[in-house]
Design goal:
With about 400 residues, the chain is α/β, with parallel strands linked by helices. The chain has two domains: about 280 residues, QueA-like (3-Layer(aba) Sandwich); about 100 residues, no CATH class. Helices cover about 25% and strands about 25% of the residues. It contains eleven helices and 18 strands. A ten-stranded mixed beta sheet has the order 2-1-18-17-14-3-12-13-16-15, covered by helices on one side. α6 runs antiparallel to α9. The longest helix has 18 residues. The two termini are about 20 Å apart.
Length: about 400
C-alpha cells in the first residue's frame, strides 16, 4: 500500500481516561519500562543503562520548554490566555528571547472573542522592578494570531518576562492547570536550548544518576536540538494520512553529532520521536545535497520520493562537507517529515519513547519502527499491565522491526 493511502482509523485504540498519567511519579527513574525485542517484557526505567548495549550511542533532544502560557485580564474581568508558539520578529529563536522592549510572536489566543480590540496590559515584577507589559493584535490568521509584545524597561529581555509571568504549557489532554511542580518536571534534566512549547517527553525519565551510569557502561551520549511545536498534539482528522498537513519544526545539529552518527552506525538509540525525526531528516538532507538540491528543508513526503540507495556514510558525509565548505559549526534546518508504515529507517536502531495518543502521527511513527502491526501487541500489553500513558506516563524501549 502507498503510505499516503494509510487510513488513520487503522491506527487507533481505546485509551481510558484512567490510563492517562495526570502527574509525574515522585522519582523520574521509577517509571515502568516496556521492552520490545521480538517479544515483549517489562522492566524498570532506572535499569536502562543495563539494557542498552555498551559501546553504543544514545542521542537526546536537549531543547528546553519555555513558559509559553501568558494570562491577561481585561477591565471587564474577562481572562485572555496568550500561548506563544514561535517568534516572528526577530524570527531567530535565541534573538527573540534576548529582544528588549518589543517582540512579535505567532500565538494561540484563548477566549479571543472577548478581546475585540485595543491593547491589553499587565504589570510584572522582575527583580524588584515593576514592568508594564502591553500586547496588541497585529494580524489574525486561520489558526493563530500575530501578537506584538512591548514593555517599558530596556534592561529586561523577553525571556525574562516569560520566566517572570509565564506558565508551563502542559499538554491539553491532562485537563488541568499547570502547577509549580510542572515547572521542574515538564523539563528534561539535560534541557539546554530554549524554544519548545512541548517537552520531548521520552527524556523526562532520565536522572543525573542514570546519565552517569550510562557513561560508566561506555554508552556514549550526544545531543541534537529540535524545538517541539504545538503541532505535535495535532490529531490526524483526515481519513487518510495523505491529506494530513504535517507540522514543521526547527532543528539544529553540530559536527560532533554527525561524527557520532557515522562512528556508531547500526548501533544508535534515539530518545524520543523528536530525536528520531531529526536524525532521519539529517540523512535526507544529505541525500538532497547529493542530488544537487541545496534547499535545507525536509518536506512531509520527501523521504518517500527521494532516491533510497545512498548509504548513511554518503549522506552524512555530504552534510559534513556542506558545513565545512560553508564554514558552519552547526547545521540549522526545518523538517516536516511524516514517518509512517512504509518508511525505511536510515539512522535509528532503537527507540526510547512513551505511549502515544490514538490517531496521532507519533503512533504512526512507532508502527513504522516496529513493523507488521506489532504496535497493537505493544499497546495491548501496556493497557493490560497497568502502564501509564502519554507525557507523564511510563516508557518503552523498542528495537527496530
Amino acid at each position: 500500500m502507498n503510505t499516503q493511502d494509510i487510513r488513520i482509523e487503522d491506527y487507533t485504540y481505546i485509551l481510558p481516561e484512567s490510563k492517562i498519567a495526570k502527574y509525574p511519579l515522585q522519582e523520574r527513574g521509577d517509571s515502568k519500562l516496556l521492552i520490545y525485542n521480538r517479544g515483549i517484557s517489562e522492566n524498570k526505567f532506572s535499569n536502562i543503562p543495563l539494557l542498552l548495549p555498551s559501546n553504543s550511542l544514545l542521542l537526546f533532544n536537549n531543547t528546553k520548554v519555555i513558559q509559553a502560557r501568558l494570562l491577561f485580564q481585561k477591565e471587564t474581568g474577562a481572562k485572555i490566555e496568550v500561548f506563544c508558539l514561535e517568534p516572528v520578529q526577530p524570527a531567530d529563536i535565541s534573538m527573540a528571547f534576548e529582544a528588549k522592549q518589543k517582540s512579535v510572536w505567532k500565538c494561540i489566543v484563548g477566549n479571543s472573542k472577548k478581546w475585540k480590540a485595543g491593547e491589553l496590559h499587565k504589570n510584572i515584577i522582575w527583580e524588584d522592578n515593576t514592568i508594564q507589559l502591553t500586547i496588541s493584535r497585529k494580524e489574525v490568521l486561520e489558526d493563530v494570531q500575530i501578537i506584538e509584545f512591548s514593555w517599558d524597561n530596556s534592561k529586561i529581555t523577553f525571556g525574562n518576562l516569560l520566566d517572570a509571568m509565564g506558565k508551563t504549557p502542559i499538554p491539553p489532554y491532562l485537563n488541568r492547570q499547570p502547577e509549580q511542580l510542572d515547572t521542574l518536571r515538564y523539563q528534561t534534566v539535560y534541557s539546554n536550548h530554549k524554544g519548545s512549547v512541548a517537552a520531548p517527553t521520552a527524556g523526562l525519565h532520565f536522572t543525573k544518576d542514570i546519565l552517569a551510569q550510562l557513561e560508566d557502561r561506555q554508552i556514549e551520549t550526544g545531543h541534537i536540538t529540535l524545538h517541539v511545536g504545538a503541532g505535535t498534539f495535532k490529531p490526524v482528522k483526515s481519513s487518510s494520512i495523505g491529506k494530513h498537513d504535517m507540522h514543521i519544526e526547527h532543528f539544529f545539529a553540530d559536527m560532533d553529532t554527525l561524527n557520532l552518527i557515522l562512528k556508531y552506525e547500526g548501533n544508535i538509540t534515539s530518545t524520543g520521536t523528536t530525536t528520531v525525526r531529526t536524525l532521519e531528516s539529517l540523512y535526507w538532507l544529505g541525500v538532497k545535497l547529493l542530488q544537487g538540491d541545496n534547499e535545507l528543508h525536509i518536506k512531509q513526503w520527501d523521504a518517500y520520493q527521494l532516491p533510497q540507495h545512498y548509504t548513511l556514510t554518503e549522506a552524512i558525509g555530504k552534510l559534513k562537507a556542506y558545513l565545512i565548505e560553508n564554514n558552519l559549526a552547526i547545521l540549522e534546518s526545518y523538517t516536516g517529515i511524516l514517518i509512517a508504515p512504509g518508511y525505511e529507517f536510515k539512522v535509528v536502531d532503537r527507540l526510547i519513547t512513551n505511549f502515544h495518543q490514538p490517531n496521532s502521527t507519533l503512533l504512526l511513527l512507532v508502527a513504522a519502527f516496529t513493523k507488521n502491526d506489532v504496535w497493537k501487541e505493544i499497546y495491548d500489553f501496556a493497557l493490560h499491565n497497568d502502564f501509564r500513558f502519554l507525557s507523564y506516563g511510563d516508557s518503552s524501549l523498542l528495537n527496530k522491526g
